[in-house]
């Protein structure tokens, strides 16, 4: 497993009995894994999950209490619902929802938290970078799809540019009445000259 995979974990204060730093110093967490302890995972909002990806995380996991052991009763339930919502948004952004997962851990259990971090590091290694320099053959399928959508938008811009000559035609049509108006004025002058000649005869 590559050592440069950045994994962001959010852990309930009642699950892991020690801090993420202690687990990392003990060599239990994958290199690049960061564990943030929260008073309750139910306080974790969807924007915070997406912000972790924006900050460079290649995988994110939430480790909350088991549903029947939640200190705040419905905290883990709320966290699971928000993780589900964030997965939908990731799919819409062209990012694999497998990069995000919810885990339920018993109180004071460090091993499941470490296992969750390792699982997400393995997923990140399998899926590759979230945003590669170019979506080529080696890019993941969601990334290629996102690149395809971006490319598909370019012809639309050409269509918008193609509409500009139409605007010029419209301008030409507007200018046409002016020519007609000047033609009428010329006709009146010609008629006046003709009348003047007749009067001199």
Write the layout of secondary structure elements.
Elements: E1 7-12, H1 20-25, E2 33-38, H2 46-54, E3 59-65, H3 75-92, E4 100-105, H4 111-127, H5 141-162, H6 164-200
Parallel strand pairs: 1-2, 1-3, 3-4
Helix pairs in contact: 2-3
SSE order, as H and E? Answer: EHEHEHEHHH
Helical fraction equals 40-55%
**In CATH's first tier, which class of the largest domain applies?**
Alpha Beta
Main sheet: strand order? 2-1-3-4
The whole-number mean of residue pLDDT values reads 74
Number of helices: 6
User: Into which percentage range does the β-strand content fall?
Assistant: 5-15%
Low-confidence stretches: 133-162, 169-201
How many domains is the backbone divided into?
2
Helix/strand/pairing category: alpha/beta
The N- and C-terminal alpha carbons lie at a distance of: 110 Å
Shape: globular
Rg over alpha carbons: 34 Å
CATH arch. level architecture of the largest domain: 3-Layer(aba) Sandwich
Q: Main β-sheet, in a few words?
A: 4 strands, parallel
Q: What is the CATH T-level topology of the largest domain? A: Rossmann fold
Number of strands: 4
Q: Short description, anyone?
A:
It comes from Dissulfurirhabdus thermomarina. By secondary structure, the protein is of the alpha/beta class.
């Amino acid at each position: 497993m590559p050592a440069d995979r950045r994994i962001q974990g959010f852990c309930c204060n009642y699950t892991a009995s020690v801090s993420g730093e202690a687990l990392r110093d003990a060599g239990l967490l994958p290199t690049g894994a960061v564990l943030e302890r929260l008073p309750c995972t139910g306080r974790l909002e969807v924007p915070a999950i997406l912000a972790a990806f924006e900050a460079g995380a290649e995988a994110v996991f939430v480790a909350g209490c088991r549903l029947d052991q939640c200190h705040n009763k419905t905290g883990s339930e709320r966290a699971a619902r928000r993780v589900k919502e964030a997965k939908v948004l990731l799919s819409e952004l062209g990012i694999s929802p497998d990069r995000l997962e919810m885990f339920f851990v018993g109180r004071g259990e460090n091993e499941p938290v470490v296992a969750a971090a390792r699982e997400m590091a393995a997923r990140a290694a399998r899926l590759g970078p979230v945003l590669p320099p170019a979506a080529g053959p080696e890019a993941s399928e969601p990334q290629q799809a996102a690149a395809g959508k971006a490319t598909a938008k370019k012809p639309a811009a050409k269509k918008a540019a193609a509409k500009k000559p139409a605007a010029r035609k419209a301008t030409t049509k507007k200018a046409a009445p002016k020519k007609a108006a000047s033609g009428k004025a010329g006709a009146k002058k010609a008629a006046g000259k003709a009348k003047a000649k007749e009067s001199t005869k």
